[in-house]
Design a protein that fits this description.
The protein is mainly alpha-helical. The protein has helices spanning 24-45, 53-98, 114-135, 138-144, 151-203, 212-250; strands spanning 12-14, 22-23. A two-stranded antiparallel ribbon has the order 1-2. Strand 1 and strand 2 (22-23) form a beta hairpin.
């Protein structure tokens, strides 16, 4: 049987029938949070002047997010204000995305809409909060009303700005992350299920067409590498877009 959408709605494993019901994807999410917490706690507990390889890797990831995404977009002062939450968005998204390529887990924690939606709503609330804190309620007026226009065009463009800023942003953040992870999982499942079919059904039955499994396996490996890149890219995209939205919210022209 080929991959289907049912894979994203697995049955309960723990606490079935209760508000705390946990399925395979929820357990993967909990595992990612625990692993991330251990990495950062243990990795920063005993920092050395001459760093170990693990410390070098951790410092590289941290400085990349801090310098290239956060401070590079928001500047030094505002970057430091929002660094903790943007760092959290990046590493949680990255960790959840990567589980789609890990054997025995093999499905991304972001492949069901709940978590992508939560991350997008967090980004949404963050830039609205930043705008109000910087400019007060004038933030909404300045975000929607462009000066110097006749009343008809002002109302028309205000509607477009409202849809773009307050409706489309969270929707596109959610769907961009979700659809990439869903598509990646289905593609990998298809390649490796085809490999299993060709090797253990067709070739095992004496049909040389089973050698096509070599090709599907090679494609599976190639798509796994691509999925690793996509996982990192999606973490980068959602973090830098959040930083850009924050930058626009606190910009002086508002």
């Amino acid at each position: 049987m080929g991959p289907s959408i049912d894979e994203f709605f697995p049955g309960a494993i723990l606490f079935a029938g209760t508000p705390f019901e946990m399925n395979r994807i929820m357990l993967i999410r909990v595992l990612v949070v625990i692993v991330l917490a251990l990495i950062f706690v243990l990795g920063t507990r005993n920092l050395k002047i001459i760093p170990t390889r693990g410390q070098v890797a951790l410092e590289f990831a941290y400085t990349f997010v801090r310098d290239s995404i956060v401070i590079g977009t928001l500047g030094e002062k505002d970057g430091k204000r929002f660094l903790p939450i943007l760092m959290t968005i990046f590493f949680v998204t990255l960790g959840m995305d990567l589980t789609g390529t890990i054997p025995l887990l093999q499905i991304a924690g972001t492949s069901v809409i709940g978590l992508p939606l939560l991350m997008s709503l967090l980004a949404y609330a963050l830039f609205i909060y930043a705008g109000i804190k910087q400019h007060g309620l004038k933030y909404f007026k300045n975000a929607l009303i462009l000066p110097g226009l006749n009343p008809f065009m002002a109302i028309f463009l205000a509607l477009l700005e409202f849809l773009s800023t307050f409706i489309v942003r969270p929707v596109t953040l959610t769907l961009r992350l979700l659809m990439n992870m869903v598509a990646g999982h289905l593609l990998l499942s298809l390649c490796f299920l085809a490999t299993q079919f060709f090797f253990f059904t067709v070739l095992a039955g004496g049909n040389p067409l089973g050698l096509l499994g070599i090709g599907t396996f090679a494609f599976g490996i190639a798509f796994t590498v691509l999925e690793l890149f996509v996982a990192a890219l999606q973490a980068y995209v959602i973090t830098i877009l959040t930083a850009i939205y924050l930058s626009m919210a606190i910009a002086e022209e508002h």
